[in-house]
Amino acid sequence: MKLKNAFFGATALVSVASTAAIAEEITIVTVNNADMITMQELAPQWEEATGNTINWVVLEENVLRQRTTTDIATNGGSFDIMFIGAYEAPIWGANGWLTSLNDFADDAAYDLEDIFGLVRDGLSADGNLYAVPLYSETSFTFYRTDVFEAAGIAAPTEQITYTEFADIAAKVHDPDNGIFGTCQRGKAGWGENMAFVGPMANAFGARWFDEEWVPQLDSPEWNAAITYYVDLMTNSGPPGATANGHNENRALFKDGKCATWVDATSAANDVRNPATSNVADVTDFFQAPKQATEKGTGWFWSWALAIPASSQKTDVAKDFLKWGTSKEYFEMVGESKGWVAVPSGTRISVHEDPRYLEGAPFAESIKNAILSVDPTDPSLLPVPYTGVQFVAIPEFQGIGNYVGQQVAAALAGQSTVDEALANSQQFAVREMTKAGYYNK
Amino acid sequence: MARAISTNRKALNTAAAGTLGFLMFFPILWMIVLSLKTEEDAIRAPLEILFSSGWTMESFGAVQARSDYFKHFSNSVIISLGSTFLGLLIAIPAAWAMAFVPGKRTKDVLMWMLSTKMLPPVGVLIPIYLIFRDTGLLDSRLGLTFVLMMINLPIIIWMLFTYFKEIPSEILEAARMDGASLREEVIYVLTPMAIPGIASTVLLNIILAWNEAFWTLNLTAAQAAPLTAFIASFSSPEGLFYAKLSAASIMAIAPILVMGWFSQKQLVRGLTFGAVK
Amino acid sequence: MISPAVILLLMWMIIPLGMTIYFSTLRYNLLQPGNSPFVGWENYFWFFTDPSFSAAMINSLVLVGGVLLITIVGGILFAMLLNQAMWGQGIIRILVISPFFVMPTVSGLVWKNMFMNPVNGIFGHIAKLLGFAPIDFFGQMPMASIILIVSWQWLPFATLILLTAFQSLDQEQVEAAEMDGATWASRFWFITLPHLARPITMVILIETIFLLSIFAEILVTTNGGPGVATTNLTYLIYVSSLLQFDVGIGSAGGVVAIILANIVAFFLMRMIGKNLDA
C-alpha cells in the first residue's frame, strides 16, 4: 500500500504539468448530512470530467471526528480529503497536519475572495487557509407558522429572551396531537447538545473559562442555564430527547412533530424544501433567544473540505476541493436540486444570485445572521479563548464531550443539575491540569 | 421414552414454543417488513404499517446508490473466509499436539491462549494502528484478515482441541505403525476424521469474523471496509431513515443468517465447544 | 507443532502489550504533537482518580452479570420448553437461534430506533395505544436497555447449549426418580441441574469472554451515557484514547483492563479446568 502510494505520488509529481493525466482514486471521508449527500450524488460529474474515481466513506458525526482525528494525528494517510469544521481547521492547520490551500487565491476562475471573509478566517491559522467551506451556519429559531397562528402567538420580530421562549414553547406544546413545544439537541457530544447548550449558556452570562483558564462550570450562570434547559425540555420537549442530535431533530421537525427548534441555519434549505419536508410551507425563522446578554447567542460553524498533509494525491484532491466549492457547483445544485437546496453561507455571489434569493427567500436573513457572529468576543465576561459554542483549544473536545454527557444525564433525570455541573467542573479542572495550563 | 404424549399437550407445546420463536425472531422480521416500506410509512403505527400501506423495494435501491453493497460484501467474504482458513492452518497442528502429545503444561497453555481472548481490544488499538500504518496494512484486506485470525485463533484452537480429544489415539498409532509420517498422519488420518468438528469450527468463526465490528471499523477506510462499515454509514438519520436502515441491515445480515440456517446442526455442535456430549 | 500458534499468539500479545505498557508511561496526547516525555506512573494516577473509573467498573460487572443471569435462567427455561414434543421443532429452533447471527451494530441500531425510540418505535406506539406515556428507554433505564439488547443476542447461544444438554439427560434416571415419588422441584434440583453444571460453566466462560469487551452496542445506542450510566471499562478506555486522544492515559487504562481480565480469566479457567477433567 505504502509503496503503491509512493509510486502514485511520484507519478503525480512527474505529471504535475498535466494534472489528472493519470486517473487517480481518492478517498473522501464525510459526515452524513444532507448537503454532503447531495455532493456525493453530484460527484460522478467530476469523476467523468477528470477520469478520477472517488471512494466515499460516510460516517456519523461523532465517529467521523474520532476516525479523522486518529488518522491525521498518527499520519495514517487513509484519507485524501476530509470534511472538518471550524473547530478543527485552525488547530490542525497550526499543527502542520493539513495542506495549505493558499494557492487557491491564484486561481482567478475559482475566485477565493468570493467566499465570505469571516468564514475564510475561521478556517485559517496564522494567515494560512487550510480548508474551503461547503456551507457555514449560525443558529436561529425554526418555528411553525401554522402552530403559532392556531395558538394566537405573534412571531417575534425582535430577539426574545429564553424566558419568553419557554412561555411560547409551553403554550404550543401539545403531545397528544403529536406536536412538541420545542425540540432541542439532547444527544451528548461537544458538537451535538453542547452546540445548543454553549450559546444558551453564553446568553445566561456564563463562560467556559476565566482569563486564567480556570473552568467556570460551577458558576451560578451555568447552573441557571442548565436548570433552564432541563426544565424547558422536560416541560415542552419530546420524550427521549437525550437520543436526539441535529439529524434526529431535523427529521422530527420535517415530520411536523416540533413547534420550535433552535438549530443550524444550514438546515433551513432542507426544512423549506417541499421535496424533502412536510412543513416546507409553514416554517419560518426568528433569532436565537438571548437572556442576560445577546453576546454569543448564535453559534458559528462551517463544514469544510481539507486535505491531510499525509495525502499522496494532493493535486487531484485540490482539484476536487475547487470543484466542490466552486460557483459552478452551487449553480449545479440549484439547477438539479432546486435553488432552495443550495448550501448557504459560502459564496457572496451565490447570496446575490437572484435565482437563489427567489428560491430561498430566507437566504438574506441567514447571511445577516452569520455575518453578525463574532467568535472572538463570545461572552458577557472576558475570556481568553475564541469560539462561540466551542473553545478553540485541543483539550476542548474531551471536556466538551464530558460536559455534554453530564448535561444529558441531568436531562434524563439520572443526576441533578448541581451534580452534573460539579462533575463537569472537576473533570475540566483535571483536564486543564493534565494539559499543563497551571504550571507555567 | 415410551410415554405417550397427548395431542393436546403437543399442541400446547407447539403454541408456546412457537410464540417464543416468533418473539425472538420478531426484530429481524420487523426489519424485513420495514425494508419493504417507504420512509413515510415506516414510522407509522405498527398496525398501519402492516395493513394499510403499500410495499416497495425502493429502499434497497437507495441503499445501493449510496454505498456500494457488493464491494463491502466481497470484503466481508474475503476477510471472514480468509481469517478462518488461515486460522485453521495454524490451529490444526497446535490442537493436534495438545490433544495427542500432551505435556505437563498443555492445559496451562490452552488456558493462557483462551485468556488472550479476554484482552480488551481498545487497549491495544493505538499500537496496532501505528504498526499497521508503518507496514502499510491500514485499510488493507490482508491486515484485517490477519487481525481477525489472531483474535479468533484461541477459539479455533480450543474447539479443535475438544474435537481431537474425542478421536481415539489408537487409530493414529495404527497409522504410525503403517509408516505414515507425522504430516501424513495429520493430513490423511486425523483431518478426515475430524471433518465434522472442523466444519463446526469454520462456521462459528466465519460468523464471529463477519460480525466483528471494532477492528473492522477502526482499521479500514474505503478499500477494505466490510459490511460492518457499510452499516455504520446508515447509523444516523438524514431525514427519515428507518426503511433505508432496515434495508441496509437486512443486506448486511442476510448472508450469514441464511448460512446459519442451513448449517444449523453443525453449528449447534460447534457452539457447544465439546462441553455437551 | 504447537509452536507456530504459540509464537504467533505470543507476538500478538507481547508486541502491542509492550507498546501499550510503554505508552502508558509517556505523556502522549495525539492532539499535542511534539515530544512525549516519560512521566512514570502519572497516567495511572489520572486513570484511577478518574471519577468515571469506579462507575465503569460497576457498570462492567452489572452488564456482564445481568446478561449472564438473563441468558442462563432464560436459556434453561427456553431449553426446557424446546425439549418438549412439538410440531415444527426445526423451524422454531431456527427462529430462536437467529438473533445470534445478527451483527452487534445492527441489533443496537434496530432496537434503538425501531423499538425503543419513544416517538416512532414500536414500544412507543404500543404505549400510546394503551394510553401510557411512552418510555424513554435510553434516558430512564439506559443500562437495562443495553442488557436487554445484549441478552437478545446471547439467549440463543445459551438456549442451544442447554437444549443439547437436556437432550442427553438420562430419561430413565428421571423416570425412576419420578416413580420414587420425587417432586418436580427435587428432580430438577438433584438430577437436572447437576447434569447442566458443565454446559452452564461453558456458557459463563464463553459469554464472559465476549461480554467483557462489549462495545458496539454501547457506541451506537448511548455513547456511554447519559452521564456515565452505560460506560463500561472498554468504553471508558475508548473515551480516553479515542475521544480525548490521550494515548498515555488510554494505555494505562488498557493495562489495567488487561490485568483485570486476566484475574477474571484465572478464576474462570480454574472453574472450567476442573470441569474439563471431570
Describe this structure in words.
The complex is a heterotrimer of chains A (440), B (277) and C (278). Chain A is α+β, with helices and mostly antiparallel strands. Chain A has 2 domains: 196 residues, D-Maltodextrin-Binding Protein, domain 2, CATH 3.40.190.10; 221 residues, Periplasmic binding protein-like II (D-Maltodextrin-Binding Protein, domain 2), CATH 3.40.190. Chain A is built from 18 helices and 10 strands. In chain A, α17 runs antiparallel to α18. Chain B contains 15 helices and no strands. Helix content of chain B is 74%, strand content 0%. Chain B has 2 domains: 54 residues, no CATH class; 167 residues, MetI-like fold. Chain B is globular, with a radius of gyration of 23 Å. Chain B is mainly α and 277 residues long. In chain B, α4 crosses α14, α5 packs parallel to α8 and α9 runs antiparallel to α10. With 278 residues, chain C is mainly α. Chain C has a single domain, classed as MetI-like fold (Orthogonal Bundle). Helix content of chain C is 74%, strand content 0%. Chain C is globular. Chain C starts with a helix and ends with a helix. Chains in contact: A-B, A-C, B-C. At the B-C interface, α1, α5, α6, α7 and α8 of B face α1, α3, α4, α5 and α6 of C.
SSE layout:
The complex is a heterotrimer of chains A (440), B (277) and C (278).
Chain A: H1 2-14, E1 25-31, H2 34-50, E2 53-59, H3 61-73, E3 81-85, H4 88-94, H5 117-122, E4 124-125, E5 128-129, E6 132-137, E7 139-144, H6 145-150, H7 162-172, H8 193-203, H9 220-236, H10 246-254, E8 260-264, H11 268-271, E9 283-287, E10 301-306, H12 314-324, H13 327-337, H14 348-352, H15 354-359, H16 363-371, H17 396-412, H18 417-434
Parallel strand pairs in A: 1-2, 1-3
Antiparallel strand pairs in A: 3-10, 4-5, 6-10, 7-8, 7-9
Helix pairs in contact in A: 8-9, 17-18
Chain B: H1 7-35, H2 39-42, H3 46-51, H4 58-66, H5 69-100, H6 106-116, H7 125-135, H8 141-166, H9 169-177, H10 182-193, H11 195-211, H12 215-218, H13 227-232, H14 242-262, H15 264-271
Helix pairs in contact in B: 1-14, 4-14, 5-8, 5-11, 6-8, 8-11, 9-10, 11-15
Chain C: H1 3-23, H2 42-48, H3 51-82, H4 89-97, H5 104-115, H6 122-130, H7 137-140, H8 142-167, H9 171-179, H10 184-211, H11 216-221, H12 233-243, H13 247-277
Helix pairs in contact in C: 1-13, 2-13, 3-8, 3-10, 3-12, 5-8, 8-10, 9-10, 10-13, 12-13
